[in-house]
Amino acid sequence: MNKIKNIFKKMIKNKKLFVLSLISLILAVGVCSAFVLFHFVPEASYRVKTFVSGILNCTVRLDKIQADKYDTKTIVVEEFINDPKVTFDQSMMLINAEHPLADDFEAKTGEYRDSGVYMNCCLFDAYASLSLDISERFDTKLYIKSAYRTYEQQLEEIESSSDLAAPIGSSEHQAGLALDVYVPYHAGYAFVQSKAGQYTASDGWKHGFIIRYQYYNVEQTKIAYEPWHIRYVGFPHAEIITKKQLSLEKYIDSLEVGSFYTFGDYIITRQAPLEGTLLLPVDYIGAVISPDNCGNYIVTLKIQT
Length: 305
Ligand SMILES: [Zn+2]
What we know:
By secondary structure, this protein is α+β, with helices and mostly antiparallel strands. The chain has helices spanning 2-13, 15-40, 42-56, 77-80, 124-138, 151-160, 195-203, 218-221, 237-243, 248-254; strands at 63-65, 72-76, 86-88, 109-111, 118-120, 143-146, 178-182, 209-211, 229-232, 260-263, 266-271, 277-281, 286-291, 297-302. It is built from 10 helices and 14 strands. Zinc ion binds at residues 146, 173, 178, 180, 229.
């Protein structure tokens, strides 16, 4: 005991040694705490990475442009249907308690690869590429727990898990645009504790998906964190939403009606159809038109750069 007291006395006398010992002690405690945190709380590493990527991606932004920067013309939406370069889908619909689906809404769904799973047709290729990516990277299979739900199925979901299921009409599952996914041993909340779950959250945008109800957007979505609920929004929206850590609510709200934006090879415009017409640039190599469920269309044009 006296020996330890003597060591402390010597250390206090020798200020330099004391400061060095204190720094070493703080570092050792820090390293041990980080090890314990990352080892026993796998999600912690995901949250740290998300925090860092939020800082690294702070320069990602949509550039608002003047419509006259491009040759534009007024296009009748109905006539667009015959243009082979144009895809009409429902990918950019905002569905929540404030913007429920209309009573006469019809989801454009189909069966995914004879699996018995029904989802919105615009997810077919995106889900196929995401699940292939996951299986190649992590040697595991991505499974779907819940995809498209009919009115009756959503009602059943509410009755069986009233805390989590959205009210009738305000669930993205009723449009077939969301999937509840999992990998073996990591279902539900545990999905984010798996490497596949963390990759889906950080890189799912490469396949057009976002984690719709993120832990950092609960105030905007009014829905608790659901790491398993992936939502298809397509390109380049998924990339912008993920990198800028936005909710779909905030992102769609940031697109002013009537304005044009650029992001990489894309032009994005949100427009209220004027007598069934939209004002669009004429030079594009592909276009996706989706209603936003707020009375407007969101048009995403791929351009040659
Ligand atoms: Zn879900």
